[in-house]
Each structure stands twice: as C-alpha cells, then as structure tokens.
Amino acid sequence: MKRLSFPAVTTALLALVCLSAHTRLTDPPPLYKNASAPIESRVRDLLKRMTTQEKVGQLSTLLGWEMYDKRGDSVQVSEKFKKAVKEQQIGMLWATLRADPWTQKTLTTGLNPAQAAQATNAIQKYVVENTRLGIPMMLAEECPHGHMAIGTTVFPTALGQGSTWNPALIQQMASTIAREARLQGAHVGYGPVLDLAREPRWSRVEETYGEDPVLNGQMGIAMVKGFQGTSIKSGSNIISTLKHFTAYGVPEGGHNGGSVSPGPRELAQVYLPPFRDAVKAGALSIMTAYNSIDGIPCSANPYLLKTVLRDQWHFNGYVVSDLSSISGLMSNHRVAATPADAAALAINAGLDSDLSGYGFGKALQEAVDKGAVSAAVLDTAVSRVLRMKFAMGLFESPYVSSEKARSEVRTASHVALARQVARESITLLKNKDNALPLAKTLKSIAVIGPNADNVYNQLGDYTAPQAEGAVVTVLQGIRNKLGANAQINYVKGCSIRDTATNSIAEAVAAAKQAEVAVVVLGGSSARDFKTEYQNTGAAKVSATSVSDMESGEGFDRVSLDLMGKQLELLQAVMKTGTPVVLVLIKGRPLNLNWPAANVPAIVDAWYPGQEGGNAIADVLFGDYNPAGRLTISVPKSVGQLPIYYNYKNPARHDYVEMDAKPLFPFGYGLSYSTFDYSGLQVQATPTASDVQVNVSFTLKNQSNRDGDEVVQLYVSDRSSSVVSPAKQLKKFARVHLKAGEQKTLTFQLRAEDLMLLNPAMQWVAEKGTFSLLVGASSDDIRLKQDFQLAKDIPVRP
C-alpha cells in the first residue's frame, strides 16, 4: 500500500475540513428557525432537539428584576441571569421591569422605558447567542391597570374600570397598556382579574370588576381583545393571562388564599362563566388561584385544568401557576410530601408553567427522573409555551426599539385616556338638594383629608414609583380647575390608619373660613419601603404598623369601618356648618352609614389612577356629568355579608338590628341628569334549537343637561327545576343622551342567557315564565314584563 507523505496527509485533512465547513455553511437552518413553516411543525422540530433539562427549563418563570444590572445609563444582564441560563436553562421571566418596595426598585435603581427596552434586548441577545438552541425568552409583566413599570400610564384599578360599565372604553385602555408593555420588550400581561368580589373584607377586591359574572365577563372580553388585538405578532400586543382560576374572591373569613367550597352547580353557573367568556374571546394564558375548592387546590385540579379548560372550552393556550403556588401544594395545602410530588401533582393536573422558578425546576426534573411525570406530559406543557413564542414571532424579532419606548410610552393621548376612564368610573352616591356640581365662582375652598393630596394612596396596588408631577391629586385637580380665582386651603387632618397624630383642629378652622369643604377619605393600597413581604409578594400585616395601607394583597379586614380618625375628622368638619362634599378614594366598600345619613354629597372614585384628581375636579365642578355605577354592593354592616344582589331564592328577611338591604345596591349611581324609561316591548321567537328574545324600550333624558345613563336588563326565572338567583343581570349599555333627547334601545337574549344547570347537570333554558326587568340599578327597576318559553332548549355553552 502506498503511504502518503506528511504534507499530503495535511493537505487531505485540510480538504476534508474545508468540505465539512462548506457543508455546514450551506446546510439549511433547522425547521424551527424557518419563519415560513407552520407553527406546529416548528414546535415538533424544536421539541425533538431539546434535552429533558432544556424542556424543564422552558417551564420555569423566574423573578425578572434580579436579571439585569443598571450602572448609570447602561443596562446589561446580571451574573444571576447568566447563572440561571447556564444551570437552569430558563425560558421565561416575570416582572423584569417591575418597580416597587417589594422589588426594592426605585426611580433611581429601576428602569425608565428606554432603559427597560435596553434591558430586555440584552436579555434576549444573551439567550439567543449563548444557548445551544437560541430559544428567546418570554417576559411576563403585571398589567392590571397599567404596565407596572416606571414611566408608564396608570389607569384606575379594576373596580373603577368596572364602574364605567363601558367595555369599549376598557378595551381601548387595555390596548394602550399592551402597547406600552410591548414597546419595552414584554410579551405577556397578567390581567384581567376575573374573580367575583363577594367578600369585601378580602384584600384584593380592588383588582376585580365586581360581584357579577356577566359584567365581569364583558370586562374580561374587553381586556383580552385590547391586550391581544388581532395578532400577538403585531409588535403592539401582548398575551393576556386571566386571573385567578378560580373562585379566589370569596375566601372564608376574607382570608386571602383561603379555602372555598361552592357546589359544582354554583361553580359552573357563577364563578366559571367570566373565565369561559374570556377564553372564548381568545385568551392565550390563564393563572391558577392560591385557594382550594372543596379540598382540591386549584394548582393541582385536573377537573378545572383539563375537563373544563381543555375538554369543554377548548382552550389552546398555556396555564401558569400563581407565585409559589406549586410549592404551596406542599407547604400550605399539605397535599404533597415533597417538592417533586408537588411538581408532579401540578403538571399532571394540567399546569404548564411555574411562576417562581422553584415549583418546577429541580423538583420537576426529579419527578421526571423517577417516572412520576411522563415524557408525553412534559412535552405537552413545553409545546404550549413554545407555541406562544412562535406565534408572537420571537424567534424572528426578539428585540424592541429603545427610542420608540422612550417616545411612545405615557404619551399625552394615553394620559388623556387615563383621565377619561377615571371620569367614567366616578360614581355619585348622594347629591341632596343638588349640592353638586359646585360653582366655579367659589372664592374659598377647604380641601381636607388624608387622600386629598397623597399620590400613592390614589393609585392602588400593583403600581410602580411615580416621578414628581406625574400624578394629579384631588388638591391639584381643584387648583387646576379654579386657578388663581379661589383661595384653596389644604389640611391633611389625619392619616388613614395612624391615630397618634392629627390636625383635626386645623381642618375645622379651614372649613369655617371656606364656602365649601371637600373632604377626601377612604383607604390605601400604597406599599412603602418599611413593609415586610411574603415570598408571594403579599404584604405581611403587623398590628403595630402605622402605614396607610389597609387594602391591597395581604391586607384583609375584619371590619369595613373607616380606619384611624377619619370619621372623627369628617364629623368635626360637618359640625362647622360649612357645606361638605365627601370624596372617597379606596379599594373596597367601606362603612358609609354615618356619611350617607349626614353628608349632603358623596362621590366615590375608588382608586382613580394618575389623572384621578383632574377627573374628580371635572365631576365636582360640572365639567363632566357622572355616570359611574356600583359593581359591588355596599353593606350597612359586615354582619350582612355576603350581600351580593343576585343571591339565590328565597328572598332575604330583615335582621333584628337592621334590614337586609345594602346601603347602596349593585348597579347604583346618580347623575346630574334625570332619565325616563317607557314603552317596553318584548317578543320571544323560538327556533329549532334556540330562542330570540327582543327587548326594546325608550329612554329619554328629561333634564337640561347632557348625560349618560347606564341601562341594565335583569332576568328573573319565575319557576325553575333548581334554585335560581332572585334576579340576574344579562345585558347593559352606557348610553349618552343630549338634554331632551330620547332613543329606542334594543337588547337581544338567546337561550344561553336563560340557561341553568338542571338536576341532571345539563345546561338547558327551561320552559316556563321569565320576568324581564329593565332599570337604573338592581334595586331601581323601571319597566317589567313577562315572557314564556314553550319548551326546554338544550344549550352547549
């Protein structure tokens, strides 16, 4: 055999190397990187290439604010992030751009919008260039009433949003929130919260739209459509994550995360419908709740996550845990003995993604290794997450423009929208002898109270630090309205909770010298840097705490009384004889018995957001005619709880001490205009498998002032095979009428609006008599007419 010389061998080897290199250069990219390939094909191709460790890593969502370092104006990935990528091969982050006392990110240490874009770009660049498969990150952010990041627009909290009764406006708001978040590099927005608020002692009432499944469902649809738009690939939209699945808002004793025990019929008819509506609208993500239902934790409930969500509703998105709720299966609920057992329980039940990084991670890897979780189950969960990344176009466009983030977040139009949402949310509870609107010719006004000039008390929970001048308080709003034409004297009077100090005497003196006193009381969800937090982000409540915070996650109440010396302050000001207007800024219904009996005018603004002061001034001085309506009943006593309007028959009877009615009912709210309802016509037309009930009537503005009326249509089933609600909201509309104008309004009901779960657990609109109730609130019915269904109509919701 002829031997090759060394130079010849070298030449041959170099030729092989060159040929190999040329082959690699000309090889087509893997299918998962082919943007024109079908998403499902890309998912399957990528899954085949991934190791078990890489798959487990894709399901971990770590705390994001620890993943960047800011040095001056420069932002880069942190060593902690590099370590997490290397050791855990993570696929998602949460709250990367969040700033608040819990994260210890301030206006100085946190990120403005341009820096936020730099941070998310750096994160994406690192994983794309420094991991084997180059899978981009998916970044989730808190977005319930604005993106919870520095420099974004802050809208009213959800209870205020619901009080607008205007889903179209809320969809516009959600679209704005989504754009601001996406411009900074976020992909998922946590929201809307679709829990029913039937326990006002619960700390998170402010995050809900109220107590009613139909209203909550309509607001949920609006948020989903606003967040996701027509395509999450648009560069302006984000994935909507529905919270909290499910029945989270009615914990025993008001304890956040406490157990609940609705029957299967109540669960299906009351708590699930808002989620069902939002899933039908296209929601792509859903978050499990901390609570258990009838002994089964929601984060390990296959009936909820498989039977209902996948089989019945055909949900095609991914399910994420709430923070630490997987590990909570072991530490809180005690249904798992080890972290691996908890991970197996969750993922086998249908939970795809872990918000925390330690619910799955090593624990899930151990569960897979010992056979407690099959490869098929793991692949299913991973594919649901990857599908979203492909659908959003992250493999092709992982980066955002820092300059766009700088110029297009919190624009003048976004701020104007925040003002409009706040104006439409404001609810006029009392206006004796037309005490409002106030005259702009007033020369002296006393502005009094702990919430009159407190930026953070006005914003609610899940709000980032605010730059000086970004938030308009009530005091500033009144100053903006009257300018130098009036003497405006401000006295705080007292704090929300602290009883150690007060300036009630000074407040009384200011009121005596004024033509009118605007007293601003209520509550606060404002976190401060002295507050301690649980690992879930909920605040630790201390009996010795003197912060204002009496609402917001973790701050459950035993009573609903105004805290501190607020009532004492109000009573002292009232004794001066100066006309008083009470403005309420708060996150839950409070005890208003004394104010309702004694104060001429009461305005409820909930947490109205950054433009709240201007919006409230618009209402106080008549530049905006209020039309907000309550979405949660206001009790006279905690002893009446629960007091939601659509309770099940029989009718409630009075107590020894008081009647059973709320102080202010669901749907209630006043206006500077008056409206007349007339001419109700109802026509029920059956079809082969449905019914169409057309309801029409005339609405007239009888006043000399343009205004909005919120028209509400309720249904009462006169006789049913199972116990039904006394009445149930089915349709509503916020209608603008000029002075003297009238319109004919039409609503349409179908069998789905009339259905119930019969004794055989079948959805059916039953034959019999139904009463249609049209009015201005659940307790102010103006028109009523019955109609008949001649036969049962099976329904597939």
From TrEMBL:
SMART domains: Fn3_like (SM01217). It comes from Spirosoma liriopis. SUPFAM superfamilies: (Trans)glycosidases, Beta-D-glucan exohydrolase, C-terminal domain. Pfam families: Fn3-like (PF14310), Glyco_hydro_3 (PF00933), Glyco_hydro_3_C (PF01915). The keyword Oxidoreductase does not apply. Residues 1-23 form the signal peptide. This is Glycoside hydrolase family 3 C-terminal domain-containing protein. Gene3D superfamilies: Glycoside hydrolase family 3 C-terminal domain (3.40.50.1700), Glycoside hydrolase, family 3, N-terminal domain (3.20.20.300), Immunoglobulins (2.60.40.10). InterPro entries: Cellulose_Degrad_GH3, Fn3-like, GH, Glyco_hydro_3_C, Glyco_hydro_3_C_sf, Glyco_hydro_3_N, Glyco_hydro_3_N_sf, Ig-like_fold. GO terms for molecular function: hydrolase activity. Residues 709-778 form the Fibronectin type III-like domain. The keyword Hydrolase applies. Keywords: Hydrolase, Signal.
